[in-house]
Structure to design on (660 residues):
């Protein structure tokens, strides 16, 4: 256990242009709520749903079990694989990285643990759902750890939800290790409720010739800060980091999306699309950092936001920090409006302006939507967009 | 029975006058073709009828039946029975072709009488097969990753699904190989009836071998300069636009008028 005064002396994580000091994310009381039945998951071949401290769904095919895949709640993993958990946790996000991450390390009492041995190939999506039970007024403090062994291949879909309406907070750290040659797609749909103020920190360590592609969809309704980082440590390691976000009402979603090119010939591309409604705020900070010695590496980023209300606030801030000459890098950022040609095309078929606008906004985020790993996940993103766009005229 | 009437239409784009007094009447039951050299305002006419915001009507009127289009938004014009098969259809990722066409059909129906999933799919399958389009196209995203030919087919498919009264086909033949041209033409011919009229814009006479028009109009310098039957197109093919211009004694510069001097006549 880390000393609390040490934690409080650490700085808060940096989210440029997002003011979150008053959100009190550094004062968490971990909830101990339990549940007995699944909220979302059913019939998944390879999936787990953890709700509060309870595992409300868990299934792994015999084939995957036989190959040594571990898929269980953090509580179960600590009991059954204590050494493995001990070694892995905080190996990607340092336990003293910042005040919120350190606090998460000291306090987390739930989460999900996944271990995929080398060469294991998943043909179907691996589905991870984490539900915050906001029923007792206490907070979610959770940790997700996913290890993907050498040359293993998996598409992961992770969801986060709030059950209940109590005003609470959430702190979730997701660590991913892709060992050499591993191929990983990590898609997530974050949909915490309006009463959940959250800190989400996802980080991957990508080793030699491994790939971690993120498809990151932020449809939370409350105030949220989200960090999404990839350490491209290995030679020829790759990350395509794709982000979509939609903010409504008075909420703020602030993101820092980082790729660190440390390995030679590593490739890191950030692609972000955000839509901002009502009085909400959406901030994209994109950071591409190339370390000296990462010869032949490539860092690109493109961030675009659509402002759909005069009272909305949006930012797309690209930052490239390059300490090596033999590299390629570039960035583009813009704050724009709804595509007029697409509007015209849809309306020329008789579709009303209001409906056309919804479809064009969806199209603006379509590139990430299309990359969701299952039809069901694509449909879920469509529904989340429709749900959030209902507030357009608020 | 419906009528599209264009009356003394003047249109400017970014302050430059492109159409300089176009008059035209298209009734259901008729197929019209507009031919003309490059840069003469054919596409401007089609986009203006549909209501593209970049085209400013400075004089004249367009009516569908007796409704003045100037007071109607793009979607209202479409629901009044107009359709434009576009030269460059937009691509929209995340919206499937099927969802888009269903939305277009439902936009024409009252909210308590939307088309059922089964009857929509039956209709889509029938039209899709008629145009030799694959089954998976319905679930692909709108025009996304479609080849030029697939996009044109998709425009015709939309026309067959929506069943407009008057369709404008803007260079539906461009970029099509001969087989695709036959398929697209088959779609238009299938629509031919007393309930349907079309205005086809084309550079080439070839299209008119497959879709034989009732009227051919020649546009030059922002006006219709001559109207005739299907034989007018054949004459143009033989003599070129410069020949007709000189015959009519028009003072119009054609972008590519020197091209014939490169060919030796036999």
């Amino acid at each position: 256990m880390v000393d609390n005064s040490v934690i409080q002396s650490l700085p808060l994580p940096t989210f440029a242009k997002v003011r979150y000091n008053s959100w009190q994310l550094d004062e968490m009381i971990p909830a101990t709520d339990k549940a007995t039945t699944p909220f979302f998951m059913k019939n998944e071949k390879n999936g787990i749903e953890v709700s509060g401290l309870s595992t409300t769904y868990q299934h792994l095919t015999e084939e995957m079990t036989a190959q040594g895949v571990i898929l269980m709640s953090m509580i179960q993993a600590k009991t059954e694989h204590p050494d493995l958990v001990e070694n892995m946790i905080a190996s990607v996000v340092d336990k003293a990285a910042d005040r919120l991450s350190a606090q998460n390390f000291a306090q987390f009492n739930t989460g999900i643990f996944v271990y995929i041995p080398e060469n294991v190939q998943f043909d179907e999506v691996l589905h991870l759902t984490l539900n915050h039970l906001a029923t007792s007024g206490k907070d979610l403090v959770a940790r997700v750890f996913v290890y993907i062994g050498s040359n293993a291949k998996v598409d992961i879909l992770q969801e986060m939800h709030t059950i209940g309406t109590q005003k609470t907070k959430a702190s979730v750290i997701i660590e991913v290790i892709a060992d050499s040659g591993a191929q990983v797609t990590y898609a997530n749909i974050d949909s915490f409720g309006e009463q959940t103020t959250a800190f989400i920190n996802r980080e991957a360590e990508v080793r030699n010739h491994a790939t971690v592609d993120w498809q990151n969809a932020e449809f939370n309704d409350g105030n949220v800060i989200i960090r999404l980082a990839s350490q491209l440590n290995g030679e020829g390691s790759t990350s395509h980091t794709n982000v979509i976000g939609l903010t409504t009402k008075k909420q703020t979603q602030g993101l820092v999306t980082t790729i660190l090119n440390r390995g030679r010939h590593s490739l890191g591309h950030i692609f972000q699309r955000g839509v901002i409604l009502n009085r909400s705020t959406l901030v994209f900070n994109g950071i591409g950092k190339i370390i000296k010695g990462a010869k032949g590496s490539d860092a690109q980023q493109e961030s675009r936001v659509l402002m759909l209300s005069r009272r909305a606030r949006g930012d797309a801030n690209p930052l490239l920090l390059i300490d090596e000459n033999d590299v390629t890098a570039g960035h583009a950022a813009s704050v724009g409006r709804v595509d007029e040609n697409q509007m015209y095309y849809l309306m020329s078929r008789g579709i009303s302006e209001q409906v056309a606008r919804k479809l064009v906004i969806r199209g603006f985020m379509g590139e990430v939507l299309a990359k969701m790993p299952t039809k069901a996940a694509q449909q879920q993103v469509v529904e989340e967009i429709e749900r959030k766009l209902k507030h357009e005229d608020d | 029975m419906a009528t599209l009437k264009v009356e003394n239409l003047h249109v400017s784009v970014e302050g430059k006058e492109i159409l300089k007094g176009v008059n035209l009447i298209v009734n259901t039951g008729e197929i019209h073709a507009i031919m003309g050299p490059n840069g003469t305002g054919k596409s401007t006419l089609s986009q203006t009828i549909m209501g593209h915001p970049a085209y400013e009507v400075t004089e004249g009127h367009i009516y569908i039946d007796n409704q003045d289009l100037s007071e109607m938004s793009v979607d209202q014009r479409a629901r009044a029975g107009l359709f434009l098969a576009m030269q460059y259809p937009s691509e929209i990722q995340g919206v499937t072709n099927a969802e888009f066409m269903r939305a277009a059909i439902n936009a024409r129906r009252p909210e308590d009488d939307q088309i059922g999933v089964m009857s929509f799919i039956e209709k889509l399958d029938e039209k899709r097969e008629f145009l030799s389009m694959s089954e998976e196209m319905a679930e692909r995203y709108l025009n996304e990753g479609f080849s030029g030919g697939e996009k044109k087919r998709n425009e015709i498919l939309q026309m067959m699904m929506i069943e407009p009264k008057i369709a404008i086909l803007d260079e539906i033949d461009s970029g099509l190989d001969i087989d695709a041209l036959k398929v697209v033409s088959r779609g238009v011919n299938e629509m031919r009836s007393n309930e349907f009229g079309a205005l086809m814009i084309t550079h080439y006479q070839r299209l008119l071998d497959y879709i034989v028009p009732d009227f051919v109009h020649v546009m030059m310098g922002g006006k219709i300069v001559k109207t005739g039957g299907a034989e007018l197109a054949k004459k143009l093919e033989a003599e070129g636009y410069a020949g007709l211009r000189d015959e009519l004694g028009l003072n119009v510069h054609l972008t590519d008028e020197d091209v014939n001097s490169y060919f030796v006549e036999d």
